[in-house]
Amino acid sequence: MTFMIVASFKILSLLFICFLFSRTAEAQLHVYLSYRCNTNKTFATNSAFQSDLTTLLYSLASANTKFYNATIVGGGDIVYGLFMCRGDLNISMCHQCVVYATQQLASKCRFSKEAIVWYEECIVRYSDRYFFSTVDTMPSFIMYNIQNASRPSFLQLLLDTLNFTAEEAANDAKKYATRESSISGFGTMYSLLQCTPDLSSRDCRKCLSGVIEDLPWCCVGKQGAGVLTPSCTVRYELYPFYYSDDQPAAISPPTNSSVPQGKAILLRHLL
Ligand SMILES: *[C@@H]1O[C@H](CO)[C@@H](O)[C@H](O)[C@H]1NC(C)=O
Ligand SMILES: *[C@@H]1O[C@H](CO)[C@@H](O)[C@H](O)[C@H]1NC(C)=O
Ligand SMILES: *[C@@H]1O[C@H](CO)[C@@H](O)[C@H](O)[C@H]1NC(C)=O
Ligand SMILES: *[C@@H]1O[C@H](CO)[C@@H](O)[C@H](O)[C@H]1NC(C)=O
Ligand SMILES: *[C@@H]1O[C@H](CO)[C@@H](O)[C@H](O)[C@H]1NC(C)=O
Ligand SMILES: *[C@@H]1O[C@H](CO)[C@@H](O)[C@H](O)[C@H]1NC(C)=O
User: Fold this and answer.
1) Of the residues 163, 208, 215, which should be mutated to test ligand 5's pocket, given the most ligand atoms within 8 Å of the CB?
2) Which of 33, 107, 201, 265 has a CA positioned 20 to 30 A from the CA of residue 21?
3) Among the atoms of ligand 5, which is closest to the Cα of residue 167?
C-alpha cells in the first residue's frame, strides 16, 4: 500500500506510544488500535469521489459477512474497499466493529483517497487503487504487552509455533488459524494468524512470514505482541484474547498478572 512509510530502516522509524486502556466492562467490545490516511492522494469536498466513498463505506457497513469487498464505480475514480473481521467473531460482533470502523474512517480520513483503520476485531480499508488479491504489508501497526518473557527458549518456541500455525492459516479457506500451546514455565500461549481471504495460499504465507519476521526485532522478550498489516495479522499472548468454544475472550491480561490491569504498550511505525 502506498502510504507514507519508508520500509527500510524500520527500527529507526518507530514511535513508542503508550495507551492506558481504561475500559469498563461494557466498553470492551471493540478495541480501536490505529488508522492511516494517505495524505498524498486527496479529493475535494463535494467531489464525485466523496460521494462514491460515502456509498462504499455505507455498503461495507451494511454487509452481513465476516469478509467483504466492494467496488464503486461512480462519477469520479473507481473506489475499492474491503473489511475483514477476526475469524473468531460472530456476524453481529463483526458488523458492529465494521460500523465503528467506517465511522472512524469517515471522520479521521476526510480527504484521503486511500486509508485503513485497525481495530483488534476488524480491519477496514479503501483506495482508488485496485488492491484486491494482492499483498500489502505497509503501513503496519505493532503492539506489545509490557510483561516480559525473557527466557531465551521462549522466542524460539514462539517462532516455531507461529511458523507452524501460519502454514495452517495459509491453507485454510478462511485464511485463519489459532493455536494454544503449552510453554513450560509460562502456561498456555494463544496465537492467532489471519490473512484477508482474497489472497492465495502462497501470498498469505508470504505475508505471514513477513509479520512473523518482524517479531524478533520489535517484540523480543515480550509475553504478547501483534503485528497488523493491511493484508495479514499475527498476535500471541499468554492469555486467551480471542473467543473459542470453551472460553470467552479476555481483552486485557488476567487480574493477577504483574502489570496493572489493562495496561499495555502499543508501538507503531512513525508516519
Ligand atoms: C507522498 O509524496 C512524497 C513526495 O512526493 C513521496 O516521497 C512519498 O513516497 C509519497 N507517499 C506515498 C504514500 O505515496
Ligand atoms: C472482490 O474481489 C475479487 C478479487 O479478489 C474481485 O474479483 C471481485 O470483483 C470483488 N468484488 C467486488 C464486489 O468488488
Ligand atoms: C456474538 O458473540 C458475542 C460475544 O461472544 C455474544 O455476546 C453474542 O450473544 C453473540 N451473538 C450471536 C448472535 O451469537
Ligand atoms: C521488562 O524488561 C525491561 C528490560 O529488561 C525492563 O526495563 C522492564 O521494566 C521489564 N518490564 C516488566 C513489566 O517487568
Ligand atoms: C517454517 O515452516 C516451514 C514448513 O512449514 C519450514 O520449511 C521452514 O523452514 C520454517 N521456517 C522457520 C523459520 O522455522
Ligand atoms: C492467575 O491465577 C490463575 C488461577 O488462580 C492461574 O491459573 C494463572 O496462572 C495466574 N496467572 C498469572 C499470570 O499469575
Assistant:
1) 163
2) 107
3) 5
Query: Please, what are the domains in the chain?
Result: 2-127 (3.30.430.20), 140-268 (3.30.430.20)
* Ligand 5 centre distance from Cα of residue 114 (Å): 34
Q: 39 CA to middle of ligand 6, Å?
A: 46
pLDDT digits (tens, 9 = 90+) for 92-128: 999 999 999 999 999 999 999 999 999 999 999 999 9
Distance CA 154, CA 240 (A): 18
Tell if the pTM clears 0.85, that is, is over it.
Answer: no
Q: Which ligand is nearest to the CA of 90?
A: 3
User: Can you give the length of the chain in residues?
Assistant: 271
Kindly tell me the number of DSSP H helices and DSSP E strands found in the chain. Answer: 4, 12
Q: How far is the CA of 226 from the centre of ligand 1 (A)?
A: 27
Rounded to whole angstroms, the Cα distance separating 84 from 94 reads: 8
